[in-house]
Each structure stands twice: as C-alpha cells, then as structure tokens.
Design a protein that fits this description.
With 117 residues, the chain is mainly α. It contains three helices and two strands, in the order βαβαα. It has one domain.
C-alpha cells in the first residue's frame, strides 16, 4: 500500500492577541471559528494518515509521503476567494516551494515505486 498525503497549505492558524480574548465579542469569536475548525481538521487528517500507515506498512518507510507547503512560504491570502494577481503569484510561488520540498523528501522515488506495483 502507498499513501500520498497532500496538504492544502493550510494549518498553522494562530490567534493574535489571545491574552485579550476575555474581552472579545461573540462576533469576534464567530469570525475565528471557521479557521479554528479547519486548522484542527488539517492536523487531524495528517495524524490519522500517518497512524494508518504505521499500523499497516511500517516496514517500508518509502510508501508514505506527506507533502505540505512550508509555513515560511505561506505568504498567500487565507481567503479562498482572493483571486487577485498578487495572491495567484504568491500561491504559485508556494506551490513551487512545495514541489521542491516534495522532491527533496522522496517524491520521485515514491512515484517510481507506485508505477512498479
């Protein structure tokens, strides 16, 4: 079995000024809820995929590969409707960095092994 886990480039959600959260309104909290839920979901899926892999194919470390956009390269907008030229440029740059990281982490070997099976 081969598992390729592809991240969406999300995750790493941070709440700024959380020390003041006791004074936030319900509206402020409501605007944060989607990001909080999505961030937890991203981490949970990555963890579950890793655990499934460990339970089934732990003897072949090359059969599981996680591809994610490095946090330092996430300069794009988190607003999924932002189709500005600048944001598209930032998304493409992040995709290139993700590809470089995937290749460095064994994507070519993973794909060769997949094609052999």
């Amino acid at each position: 079995m081969q598992i390729l886990s592809i991240g969406t480039g999300g995750g790493g959600f941070k709440i700024t000024e959380k020390e003041k959260s006791d004074k936030w309104s319900r509206i402020k909290w409501a605007t944060l809820i989607p990001d909080i839920m999505m961030d937890g979901s991203i981490d949970t899926v990555a963890f579950q995929m890793h655990e499934i892999y460990q339970a089934i194919e732990a003897e072949d470390p090359g059969s599981y590969l996680r591809i994610n956009t490095p946090a330092v390269d996430r300069n794009y907008s988190s607003d999924m409707s932002n189709a500005s030229r600048e944001n598209i440029k930032d998304l493409l740059a992040a995709g290139e960095k993700s590809k470089e990281g995937a290749i460095a982490n064994g994507l070519d070997k993973f794909l060769d092994d997949l094609l052999k099976d």
